[in-house]
Amino acid sequence: MTGDSWFEIREFEDGVVGIGEPGHTEDVKSYLVRGRDRALLVDTGTGIGDLRTAVESLTESPVLLVNSHGHWDHIGSDWQFAPVWIHQAEADRPPAGVPNARMRGRISPEHLLRPLPVGVDPETFAIPPAAVGRVLTGGEVIDLGDREFLVVHTPGHSPGGISLIEEKTGVAIVGDALYAGPLYGHLDGSDPGDYRETLRRLAELSLHLRAVYPGHNTYPLDSGFLVEAHRGMEEVWSGRTPDRVSDGVEEYRFRRHSLLLREGWRGR
Predict the structure, then answer these.
(1) Domain count, the chain
(2) Is residue 2 part of a domain?
(3) Helices and strands counted in the chain (H then E)
(4) Tens-digit pLDDT profile for residues 12-60
(5) pLDDT per position as a tens digit, 175-220
(6) Residue 5: pLDDT band with limits 50, 70, 90
(7) Does the residue 166 lie in any domain?
(8) Are 158 and 176 in contact (CB under 8 A)?
């Protein structure tokens, strides 16, 4: 922990630094990987804490920011590190920012597990716009000098979701493609067919992976979780009955995660 700050900092043996936000119910994770020539920052969380100061305490190298996708809880401090690299399907998100009208409820007391930092007021808090420096499509290699990450397009949760794979170390940073907890496949822009293909692809990669770093909750995950999630999706695809249907959402429960899909998705 960084004292009484907003962030939880965890350093792992493979050189990945987890930057968690346990003070918010989203329990979002951003990641820093320090290379010889520059550092890679994957996502910037909710924007509630001063992420720039936290990152500067961890590296003096130039920082390249890559967004796993464009949802609000992953782009909150993009403006502190812009320009950002992001998939073309969501390249409109960082430049738009998120106004207070949409953010006010997301940092209200029912979403907080610790006090907000001094100066953060729910009545005025907003996510500022951030410029996009490079639009990604998948297949690019991010070179840090002595570490390389392959960009893999992993849509389903959102259309522009990406994962970053380092073959040498078996590290995968997967954003919201997969995490322990409820996987949202029912949001605007979510696509069950794309999600199925993403989970199949990640399961295929699992044999070559050692540690999986997700966008939320417990981290890191073992690579076997990729296979679990794929098998779960195949059960759903084969006609499994939902465990619960509520407010137009079908919920399918598994040992370490659940899958949420729009009611009637099979007929769409």
Answers:
(1) 1
(2) no
(3) 5, 16
(4) 999 999 999 999 999 999 999 999 999 999 999 999 999 999 999 999 9
(5) 999 999 999 999 999 999 999 999 999 999 999 999 999 999 999 9
(6) confident
(7) yes
(8) yes
User: Where does the pLDDT of residue 2 fall: very low under 50, low under 70, confident under 90, or very high at 90 and above?
Assistant: very low
Report if residue 224 sits inside a domain: yes
The answer as to whether 1 is a domain residue is no
Q: Where are the alpha helices (DSSP H) in 206-242?
A: 224-237
Chain segment 98-114, per-residue pLDDT in tens: 999 999 999 999 999 99
CATH number for the domain harbouring residue 262: 3.60.15.10
Rounded to 10 degrees, the C-alpha dihedral 258/262/267/268 comes to -120
For 23-50, letters b (16+ CB in 10 Å) and e give: bbebbbbbbbbbbeebbbbbbbbbbbbb
- Distance in angstroms (rounded) separating the CA atoms of residues 174 and 195: 13
Mapped onto helix, strand or coil, the DSSP state of residue 183 is: strand
pLDDT tens digits, one per residue of 112-149: 999 999 999 999 999 999 999 999 999 999 999 999 99
Sorted by sequence, the CB contacts under 8 Å of residue 147 that are 6+ apart come out as 15, 33, 35, 36, 40, 166, 168, 169
CB count, 10 Å around CB of 231?
13
Q: Do 64 and 96 contact (CB within 8 A), yes or no?
A: no
DSSP designation for 112: B
146 is in which domain, residue-wise? 8-267
CA distance 20 to 8: 5
